Amino acid sequence: MNPFESRPVSVLRTPSAWIPIGLSLAGLGLVVGHALVYGIVHEPDEGTAAHVFQLLMVAQVPIVAFFALRWLPRQPKQAAVVLLLQAVAFLAAWASVYFLT
Predict the structure, then answer these.
(1) What's the rounded Cα separation, in Å, for the pair 17 and 62?
(2) Distance of CA 75 to the CA centre of its chain
(3) What is the pLDDT of residues 87-99, one digit of tens each?
(4) Closest CA to 28 of 90, 101, 72, 84
(5) What are the domain boundaries of the chain?
(6) What's the per-residue H, E or C state across the chain?
(7) Single pTM value for the model
(8) CA dist., res. 56 & res. 93, Å (int)
C-alpha cells in the first residue's frame, strides 16, 4: 500500500506487471506477422525475426522474477492473477511459434 494514498495500489498498474505481457504480445505479433508476410515455411537457418523473438522472451525472465519477489508477499491474490496473465501471454507466444513455423 502506498503511504500517500488511502487505497491499495493496483498491482496490474505497475510496469513490472504489464511489461512482460507486452513483450509476449510483441513476440506473438512478430511471429504472426512473419507468417503472414513470408508464409509458413520451415527455414533451415534462423532469421532476424527468430532472434528478436528469442530476445523478447528472455528479456521477460528477470522482470517476472522481480515482480514475483516484490508483489507476491505483499498482495498474493492480485500478484497470482497477474502472474497467470503473464504465463498465458508467454505460452500464447510460444504456441504461435510451434503452430506457425
Answers:
(1) 12
(2) 20
(3) 999 999 999 999 8
(4) 90
(5) 15-100
(6) CCCCCCCCCCHHHCHHHHHHHHHHHHHHHHHHHHHHHHCCCCCCCCCHHHHHHHHHHHHHHHHHHHHHHHHCCCCHHHHHHHHHHHHHHHHHHHHHHHHHC
(7) 0.86
(8) 10
